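As described in the Methods, two query proteins were run sequentially through the folding procedure within a single session, without resetting any intermediate state between them. The first query and its resulting structure tokens are shown here.
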Amino acid sequence: MPAKSRKRVHLLTATCPLCHEQGGLKKIIFGMPNSDFDFEKYIVGGCCVTDDDPEIGCVKCGWKGLRLELLMNNSNQD
């Protein structure tokens, strides 16, 4: 039986659901960043981790949410 292929949204080409800009979405990393943390590639999410933390954010407007929200938003634009 073939494995199901999951559609994955690439953050570089995805559109922010709030400001509708491309190129501003980044993965949120939680924990204390060290000296070699790549601030250009990731957003610092803070030290406290909970079950409902956002996975991605937009550096252009401040939106934070889940990758699933992007998949739904970007598939509606096709």
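Immediately afterward, the second query was submitted; its sequence and tokens are:
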Amino acid sequence: MTPDRWTRIERLFTEAAALPESERAPFLLSRTQADRQLMADVERLLALDADADAYLTGLAGDLVAHLRQRSRLGGPADP
């Protein structure tokens, strides 16, 4: 992948990620035109970003639950 291509992917990803999910596909279609691989690359990054957010949210929730349980039991708050 060329540096110019990566820069374009990164820019499109940043712009698309700021949009509501329902607006992303039309935005990418208009910006990538006939370059289906470019659109697929950006969509793949968006999917990975969503998965990472869900994973981190789950970890944060687990940590909060653990700390609350420990405090109720009178134990140290360290996990």
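The radius of gyration is 19 Å. We note this only descriptively and draw no conclusion about the first query from it.
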